[in-house]
Known about the structure:
The structure holds 2 protein chains of 2 kinds. Chain A is mainly beta.
Amino acid sequence: AQKITQTQPGMFVQEKEAVTLDCTYDTSDQxxxxxxxxxxxxxxxxxxxxxxxxxEQNATEGRYSLNFQKARKSANLVISASQLGDSAMYxxxxxxxxxxxxxxxxxxxxxx
Amino acid sequence: DVKVTQSSRYLVKRTGxxxxxxxxxxxxHENMFWYRQxxxxxxRLIYFSYDVKxxxxxDIPEGYSVSREKxxxxxxxxxxxxxxxxxxxLCASSFGGQGSTQAFFGQGTRxxxx
Lengths: 112, 114
């Protein structure tokens, strides 16, 4: 069975600072993919970044980077230089064997 | 432009009614998913499909069924709606196989069962 755990219900971050969102996962599959999505108050789901289980380097996309620690089954999202527009809900997700599962999400509020 | 379209943004149904939520994608995706989103619980997978006429139970399938007669359409059915099925329902689709195939989401259907 797949499980995604996000332990931080909500976080506050100062504008221009970095923030790390925690995500741990559990799966018995050897091949899987990890995703992060952003959901602003408008409700749309926005894909941010992807990490494959066999990728040796951590994924980066602009201000987003994924800190992938396979042995610890951890896939934390780092947002650098936070902006007011980063205020949103963030979801960690894992795909294995066709199934795509999500965590409970973390609400990020960026303060000016 | 990729598109996943859910038939309704808002629905109000009565307890015991049979409810159909429709989702259509125009990207020729193999995989389609139905989730419900509730505060504090994130997105919970109800059912998914990796091919036409194929369906798999997700984590919370009880009280729901699905139909996928055509590749582009994935329907969620509430056999007998109950108040605890009041929620936001999200449909998503993606290409099959491994790799960085992100899922694309519909705009969501806010269902209220009274």
